[in-house]
Amino acid sequence: GENVEQHPSTLSVQEGDSAVIKCTYSDSASNYFPWYKQELGKRPQLIIDIRSNVGEKKDQRIAVTLNKTAKHFSLHITETQPEDSAVYFCAASNGNQFYFGTGTSLTVIP
Amino acid sequence: DGGITQSPKYLFRKEGQNVTLSCEQNLNHDAMYWYRQDPGQGLRLIYYSQIVNDFQKGDIAEGYSVSREKKESFPLTVTSAQKNPTAFYLCAARDGWNYGYTFGSGTRLTVV
Questions:
Q1: Do A102 and B106 touch (CB under 8 A)?
Q2: In sequence order, what are the residues at sequence separation of 6 or more whose Cβ sits closer than 8 angstroms to the Cβ of residue B35?
Q3: Does B97 have pLDDT greater than 70?
Q4: Which residue is closest to B48 within chain A, CA to CA?
Q5: Min distance B103 CA to chain A CA atoms (Å)
Q6: For residue B4, pLDDT beyond 80
């Protein structure tokens, strides 16, 4: 089956700086890569996703890049704000089920 | 609750008891999923169902059971065979046409 690895497990940045979270996957059949944000005690919420036919996608301060050859994808958050503090999960899907990374706890220091 | 309702929010189980977690959706999504979340381990799949009256085991199905008698409902039973059930349980539904998951707000189960 699919194996998704996510790094780093914790990340602290100063407000206004950028944050980057990286994930690798093992199954070349995976074709959909969502990112979820989970605030403390709340449900994960989809923040951005990318499909395998696209190399990069941007939505305001958030962007995701995908390198199919190397089987890795990354989440980039620019101009970080305290409300960006949360746990972020990447996932990979081959259309049947999702395989999640172990999460990155992001802290934005005011 | 964004179309998926999980209840209860908090649940306490005594040793040797079975407990059932409820998950109801009004999104008309075919596929539903149960995940377990433990600190540092991300989300692990327990069971999933792609259509009514059919479900499949995920990576950690031992000690759990499910049913899917209605499209809207996918209850999870944590049996006494599950030796370490204390965790946060998340239910999700997915629209088969656009891949996205919608999660419920979760149930925190504690063994006392």
A1: no
A2: A100, B43, B44, B45, B46, B89, B90, B91, B92
A3: no
A4: A97
A5: 6
A6: yes
B38 interaction partners in chain A (CB closer than 8 Å): none
Among positive and negative, which fits the CA dihedral A104, B63, B59, B9?
negative
Q: What local confidence, expressed as pLDDT, does residue A17 receive?
A: 98
pLDDT band, residue B1 (cuts 50/70/90): very low
- How many helices (H) and strands (E) chain A has is answered by 0, 11
Separation of alpha carbons B90 and B45, rounded Å: 10
Chosen from B37, B43, B48, B59 to mutate, greatest number of chain A CBs within 10 A: B43
Amino acid type, A21: I
Q: Measured between CB atoms, does A101 come within 8 Å of chain B?
A: yes
The predicted structure's pLDDT at residue A75: 98
